[in-house]
Design brief:
By secondary structure, the chain is mostly beta strands. The chain contains 6 helices and 26 strands. The strands form 7 sheets. Strands 5-6-7-10-9-8 form a 6-stranded antiparallel β-barrel. A 6-stranded antiparallel beta barrel has the order 11-12-13-16-15-14. Strands 18, 19, 22, 23, 24 and 25 form a 6-stranded antiparallel beta sheet that branches. Strand 5 and strand 6 form a beta hairpin.
Length: about 400
């Protein structure tokens, strides 16, 4: 986490630019046959342990086991930035800009034997130089391979012998469930390789990206303690696989209150692979903002479909604008939400019914700039289809 700015999330994004173990039974019956009789014996239930249930599963690791396996692959990231600060000239009284260095501390983890390390974009943003420290306290210089502000992902690379590197296994964030136990390892407040444990508190959260005009979907919420310096570190499941990259907390004072957010590893893996290959990540871009429609809202406003996405705005020059998508001309409040009426209602994308902004985002993000998407829309009382050639998400 960057020391120059709190790791805090003010509010969850509602609408966004579309870019691109089971407990054992309490008793058992044992039967033996001797002299024509059957003896029945009941076994008493074993009291539950204090640790999370899933950590007791035969396939799960203990927190200590996860820590000992993963800690060698977790690094502390130190990013040095040069900033201009005003200083008052003692003789003439006017401001004279001065340069000074400041450091941002965060976390990261090794993903392959080639020395690639994943961290958050906001940890290394604006850095002139970056160093990483391993569990043996060895500090080495790292090269910034590339970064992606719209997903808060950055990839570093160190020149180290493959035997000295301990890549962490990557899991499947789509297979995560609410209540699953998780472990976070990072460097909060510069305290290297600190472990905290908790559960997955919620799924499908949406948070604001460092590139503030964009949002990050399918985010994992956890109550594992996260603080400044945890940014970029791994969130691991009970088998020790990375399911997310710890990125933000929601807090009024910048400290942990049990609400942390991790960018899902499936998103990170895709973006990191593209950065390693080309030095940057490109995202397909439609160029609208919108508001999802529920059946009750559809009935209230007498819309022609029970679900879909109302187009709120169309970015000039975007793929949506070129395809002729129309934004709403008036805004109406219902249940505390603003709904754009008078424009297009998108009901499906590539034949997939749209019940949320995130569903439309998923369709777009599965494509590359220049790919086409078929949108089915209602315009007033007429239903039509638009074939849209997607653009490239603008650089923040």
């Amino acid at each position: 986490m960057a020391a120059r700015s709190p790791l805090a999330l003010g509010a969850l994004v509602v609408s966004a630019v579309i870019g691109g173990a089971v407990a054992l039974g309490a008793a058992a019956v044992l039967g033996t046959f001797k002299s024509g009789t059957t003896t029945v014996r009941e076994l008493q239930a074993v009291p539950a342990a204090a640790s999370p249930t899933a950590f007791q599963s035969s396939k799960a690791l203990s927190v200590n086991q996860i820590y000992r396996r993963a800690a060698p692959g977790v690094v502390q990231v130190t990013a040095t930035q040069v900033v201009k600060t005003p200083a008052v000239d003692p003789f003439f009284g006017f401001s004279v800009p001065q340069s000074q260095s400041q450091q941002a501390l965060g976390s990261g983890f090794v993903i392959d034997k080639a020395g690639h390390i994943v961290t958050n974009y906001h940890v290394i943003a604006g850095a002139r130089s970056v160093r990483v420290s391993f569990s043996d306290n060895e500090s080495v210089k790292a090269r910034i391979v590339g970064s992606d502000p719209s997903t808060d992902v950055a990839v570093l690379q160190v020149d180290a012998h493959a035997l000295a590197l301990s890549p962490l296994p990557l899991g499947d964030s789509d297979a995560v469930h609410v209540g699953d136990p998780v472990v976070a390892i990072g460097n909060p407040f510069g305290l290297d390789r600190t472990v905290t444990a908790g559960i997955v508190s919620a799924l499908q959260r949406v948070i604001q990206a460092p590139a503030q005009q964009y949002s990050i979907d399918h985010v994992i919420q956890t109550d594992a303690a996260l603080n400044k310096g945890n940014s970029g570190g791994p969130l691991l499941d009970a088998r020790g696989s990375v399911i997310g990259v710890n990125s933000q907390i929601q807090s009024g004072n910048g400290g942990n209150v049990g609400v942390g957010f991790a960018v899902p590893i499936n998103t990170v893996e895709t973006v990191a692979a593209e950065i390693i290959k080309t030095g940057h990540a490109e995202h397909a871009f439609l160029g609208i903002t919108g508001q999802a429609v529920t059946p009750s809202i559809a009935r209230l406003f007498r819309l022609p479909a029970s679900q879909g996405v109302l187009v709120a705005s169309v970015q000039p020059g975007s793929a949506a604008a070129k395809a002729g998508l129309r934004a709403g001309t008036q805004k109406v409040l219902a249940n505390g939400e603003s709904y754009p009426l008078g424009g297009d209602l998108i009901v499906s994308a590539d034949g997939l019914p749209l019940g949320s902004i995130e569903r439309l985002h998923d369709v777009i993000s599965s494509k590359k700039p220049g790919d086409r998407v078929s949108l089915e829309i209602w315009r007033g009382s007429s239903k039509t289809s638009l074939d849209v050639k997607l653009g490239r998400q603008p650089s923040p």
